[in-house]
C-alpha cells in the first residue's frame, strides 16, 4: 500500500533529533525510568523500563506528531492536518494540533475502542469513523487530504516524525548512561529508527534490538531482501505494531543502525503484559510490552544494563481482560479441564472439595448431564481454575486422578 507525503529525503541526523528535543521542551514529558528486579534477575544484569506509557496521550506518538506539525509552513497549518489511526497516533496528532492551534481531522476504524475515540475527540480532533480495517481508514484519510489540501501526518514515514521519536533515545542516555542494550518494539519502524539515530551517533557501542510480533513481522523478510516488503495479512493482538509494511524512511535507518530484529509470539506478549501489571504495577498495551516479551523469551541474549522501551499504555479494557487471561494461560496459571463423574446427588460438591484441598481457585463450572457420548449414569463437568503455575497445574491434575476422576482434557 502506498502512503501520501512520505519524505523523499531519508537522512535523519543527530542534529535533527537534538533540534526536536529543544522543540519538545515543555511539551513532551521526560518519562520515568523504572528498574525491574524480576527481569534483572533473569538477565543477570540491571534492566530498566523507559516508561513512555506514562507520556502525555499514553504513548511516544506525541513526540513525532508535534515535531512534524510544528515544522509546517503557515499556509500548510492553515489548511489543517489529517491522520488515520486506531489509537495512539490519533491521540498524538490531536493533542499536538491543539497545542499548535492547527485544525485536525482523524479517521478511525468503525470498530476502534470507544475510550480511544473519546480521548481523540477530547484532545481536540474531529473524529470520522470509516472502514472496518485500518487500510480502509487510511485510504479515506488520504482521499480527504487530496480533496481538501489538508496535510497528511504519517505515523512513521517522515524524517520529522522520526526525529521526534528519537528524543526517547536521548533521554535514555541521560537517565541511564551505563546502558549497553536498548530494546524497542517495531511496527513501521519510526521509534526504533529515531532512537538508533540519536543513540548510535553518541554511543555507537550500544546495541539496539527491535522487536516485532511474529504475526506482523515485516522487517525480517524486508531486511533480507534489502527493501521494504508488504505482508499480506498481519495478525497480532499488538495493534500498535501491527503494520504490514516498513516505512521507506525508517527502513533505511533501521537497516543501517539497528543491530538485530527479533520476533515474539502472542503467548509471550500476553505474559509480558501480565508481568508489567503484576510486578511493575504498570499498565502497558501489548505493543508496549513487546520488548519485555523478548527479554522473557531469551534473557541470556541481552547484555546489560538493558533498557526496555514501554512505548504505550493505551489498552482497551476489553482487550486487557482477554490478554490477561491469555497471559495467565501462557504462564501456567489458568487451567481448563473436562471430567467424567457419576451423576448422583452431591457428586459436584465432592469434586469441588477435591479442588479446594488442592488449593485451586474455581473460576467457572459447566455441568452437562445430557449428551450422546455420556453413559446413563454419567455426567461431564468442565472447570476453569486459577492455579499457581505449571507445577501446581500438574499437582491439581494428579489430585483429581487420585480421587478417581477421569480427566478428559
Please describe what this structure looks like.
The protein is α/β, with parallel strands linked by helices and 409 residues long. The chain has 3 domains: 14-59 and 163-328, Rossmann fold (3-Layer(aba) Sandwich); 61-152, Rossmann fold (3-Layer(aba) Sandwich); 332-407, Alpha-Beta Plaits (2-Layer Sandwich). It has helices at residues 14-23, 37-43, 61-70, 74-79, 88-100, 114-122, 134-148, 159-165, 167-175, 190-202, 219-225, 248-257, 266-278, 290-297, 317-330, 347-357, 390-402; strands at residues 33-35, 47-51, 81-84, 104-108, 126-129, 151-152, 181-185, 207-213, 260-264, 306-310, 334-342, 361-368, 378-386, 406-407. The chain has a 6-stranded mixed sheet with strand order 1-2-10-7-8-9. The protein has a 4-stranded parallel sheet with strand order 5-4-3-6, sandwiched between helices. It has a 4-stranded antiparallel sheet with strand order 12-13-11-14. β7, α10 and β8 form a beta-alpha-beta unit. The chain is globular and about 80 Å long.
List strands and helices in order, with pairings:
Layout (H helix, E strand, L loop, with lengths): L13 H10 L9 E3 L1 H7 L3 E5 L9 H10 L3 H6 L1 E4 L3 H13 L3 E5 L5 H9 L3 E4 L4 H15 L2 E2 L6 H7 L1 H9 L5 E5 L4 H13 L4 E7 L5 H7 L22 H10 L2 E5 L1 H13 L11 H8 L8 E5 L6 H14 L3 E9 L4 H11 L3 E8 L9 E9 L3 H13 L3 E2 L2
Parallel strand pairs: 2-10, 3-4, 3-6, 4-5, 7-8, 7-10, 8-9
Antiparallel strand pairs: 1-2, 11-13, 11-14, 12-13
Amino acid at each position: 500500500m502506498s502512503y501520501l507525503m512520505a519524505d523523499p529525503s531519508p537522512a535523519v541526523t543527530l542534529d535533527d533529533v537534538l533540534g526536536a528535543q529543544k522543540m519538545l521542551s515543555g511539551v513532551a514529558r521526560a518519562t520515568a525510568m523504572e528498574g525491574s528486579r524480576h527481569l534483572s534477575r533473569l538477565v543477570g544484569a540491571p534492566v530498566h523500563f523507559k516508561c513512555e506509557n506514562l507520556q502525555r496521550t499514553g504513548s511516544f506518538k506525541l513526540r513525532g506528531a508535534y515535531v512534524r506539525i510544528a515544522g509546517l509552513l503557515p499556509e500548510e497549518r492553515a489548511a489543517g492536518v489529517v491522520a488515520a489511526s486506531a489509537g495512539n497516533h490519533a491521540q498524538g496528532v490531536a493533542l499536538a494540533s491543539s497545542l499548535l492551534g492547527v485544525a485536525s481531522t482523524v479517521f478511525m476504524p468503525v470498530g476502534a475502542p470507544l475510550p480511544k475515540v473519546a480521548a481523540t475527540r477530547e484532545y481536540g480532533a474531529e473524529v470520522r469513523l470509516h472502514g472496518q480495517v485500518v487500510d480502509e481508514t487510511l485510504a479515506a484519510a488520504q482521499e480527504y487530504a487530496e480533496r481538501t489540501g489538508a496535510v497528511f501526518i504519517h505515523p512513521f514515514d517522515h524524517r520529522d516524525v522520526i526525529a521526534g521519536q528519537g528524543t526517547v533515545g536521548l533521554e535514555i542516555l541521560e537517565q541511564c548512561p551505563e546502558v549497553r542494550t536498548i530494546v524497542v518494539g517495531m511496527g513501521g519502524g519510526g521509534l526504533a529508527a529515531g532512537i538508533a539515530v540519536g543513540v548510535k551517533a553518541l554511543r555507537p557501542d550500544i546495541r539496539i534490538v527491535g522487536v516485532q510480533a511474529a504475526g506482523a513481522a515485516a522487517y525480517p523478510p524486508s531486511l533480507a531482501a534489502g527493501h521494504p516488503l508488504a505482508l499480506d495479512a498481519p495478525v497480532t493482538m499488538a495493534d500498535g505494531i501491527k503494520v504490514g509494511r516498513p516505512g521507506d524512511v525508517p527502513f533505511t535507518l533501521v537497516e543501517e543502525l539497528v543491530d538485530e530484529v527479533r520476533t515474539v509470539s502472542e503467548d509471550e506478549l500476553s505474559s509480558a503484559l501480565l508481568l508489567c501489571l503484576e510486578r511493575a504495577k504498570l499498565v502497558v498495551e501489548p505493543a508496549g510490552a513487546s520488548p519485555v516479551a523478548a527479554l522473557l523469551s531469551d534473557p541470556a541474549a541481552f547484555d546489560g544494563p538493558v533498557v526496555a522501551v514501554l512505548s504505550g499504555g493505551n489498552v482497551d479494557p476489553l482487550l486487557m481482560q482477554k490478554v490477561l487471561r491469555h497471559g495467565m494461560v501462557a504462564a501456567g496459571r489458568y487451567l481448563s479441564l473436562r471430567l467424567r463423574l457419576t451423576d448422583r446427588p452431591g457428586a459436584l460438591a465432592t469434586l469441588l472439595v477435591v479442588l479446594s484441598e488442592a488449593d485451586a481457585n474455581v473460576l467457572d463450572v459447566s455441568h452437562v448431564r445430557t449428551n450422546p457420548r455420556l453413559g446413563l449414569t454419567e455426567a461431564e463437568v468442565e472447570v476453569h481454575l486459577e492455579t499457581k503455575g505449571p507445577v501446581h497445574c500438574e499437582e491439581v491434575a494428579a489430585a483429581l486422578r487420585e480421587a478417581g476422576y477421569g480427566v478428559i482434557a
